[in-house]
What we know:
Elements: E1 3-11, E2 15-18, H1 19-25, H2 30-36, E3 41-44, H3 51-62, H4 65-70, E4 71-77, H5 88-96, E5 103-107, H6 113-127, E6 132-141, E7 154-164, E8 169-171, E9 176-179, E10 185-186, E11 195-196, H7 198-220, E12 229-232, H8 237-245, H9 253-273, H10 280-291, E13 300-307, E14 311-319, H11 329-337, E15 340-341, H12 344-351, E16 362-363, E17 373-379, E18 382-387
Parallel strand pairs: 2-15, 4-5, 4-6, 12-13
Antiparallel strand pairs: 1-7, 1-8, 2-3, 6-7, 8-14, 9-14, 10-11, 13-14, 16-17, 17-18
Helix pairs in contact: 1-2, 3-5, 7-8, 9-10
Keywords: Transferase
Protein name: Hydroxymethylglutaryl-CoA synthase
InterPro entries: HMG_CoA_synt_C_dom, HMG_CoA_synth_N, HMG_CoA_synthase_prok, Thiolase-like
Amino acid sequence: MKIGIDKIGFYAPHLYVDMNKLAAARNVEPEKFTIGIGQEKMAVAPITQDPVTLAANAALIILDEEDRAKIDFVIFGTESGIDNSKSGAVYVHRLLGLNPNARSVEVKQACYGATAGIQMAKGHIALNPDSRVLVLASDIARYGLNTAGEATQGAGAVAMVISADPKILALEDQSAYLTADIMDFWRPIYSDFAFVDGKFSNEQYVLFFKTVWEQYKTKTNLGLNDFEAICFHLPYTKIGLKALRTILEEASEESQERLLANYQSSTLYNRNVGNIYTGSLYLSLVSLLEQSEQFKSGSRIGLFSYGSGAVGEFFTGILQPNYQEYLYSEKHAELFASRTEVSIEEYEKMFQQTVPVDGSTAVFGSTNDPAPIQLKGIKDNMRQYENKTN
């Protein structure tokens, strides 16, 4: 039985900062942001968008009534959770009007969470072939104003329906994975911002990739020439290229050209959204499928997932016949086209507007947010959500 991605879509806030202007405001050469880390625009979340609403808005794009009836497991991958007890999946489950006879949980391991969710979903579908699982990857990356990590912030979510006989990508059984207790990136419960050892984290990212790639080759006897493309977790778009280049000489010249060209296609959306943590790998996959020339059915796509702290995995999928008919390219193009640029001053003001944490009541005024699902305020320590489509 084939199990894999039947549907995939993403959502990003309607506001963004131009990275050239951010560089100018920080007295940095623009090329450091646009070429050095490979970012052009950074999505900015207004107060009315949090990880729950971003995930729900992403899912709203792809779900139909049949999905709502058949989804009996919701897995929410995030490192930006809003509650230490209640999962974001439960909120999304209600906002989307899903089948009440369902499991709903939140999964955390830095940027690896959604990949863990997909592997859990595969096991569930194997036991329940008629079921569907909704896997959500949603995060808001925040490092603080005028910090070293500011240029690698972002906000957004990816939603995926995992099912038997998937229409887009059938996931293969063999994968390679690795865990090591390291402190390259972490966020204690008491901190609003993450701590990161940037140089060390980059080194570990590449090391993890090379290690799981070697393990994968040993398990499968496959090599680079067997891949149409490889997608990477992209906290910024240059990092995946660094990793790919460490093994590129293993491929033929023709394969090298193909892999590099497809890598560029896989980074286009990430360049214009920024870092969405656990959703970054899957935003890259959406970008690859929607921005590359049509791939042949049966093409193999590699996926490298990395979550600091650290867990890494390399796994693969096979593109299904006519997969492009089941993408949401037009809706995603409309989303990008409808976004509004904000000034650095406006961005800084929004960044400092946060949800109260002292139990006070708050009602968030209009931000001209066009999203159908929004956070409207706080009352009695409870977030107040609204789905305008209901």
